[in-house]
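Teaching assistant's notes for section 4

Start the section by putting this record on the projector. Ask students to predict, before seeing the second block, whether 4-oxalocrotonate tautomerase will look compact or extended. Collect guesses on the board.
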Amino acid sequence: MPVVTIQQGPRDAESRRELVARITDAFVHTYDIPADTVQADRPTPAENRR
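Reveal the predicted structure now:
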């Protein structure tokens, strides 16, 4: 099961969701695995929470 940690500057929630969706799609298509096996960990600093 792939686990991905994303570190980035402040972004809105929609941009963060889109990034995770695209990374998940890359694993699904490259490794031929189900999307629900990909885990994305997005540590969010307090100033980035909206």
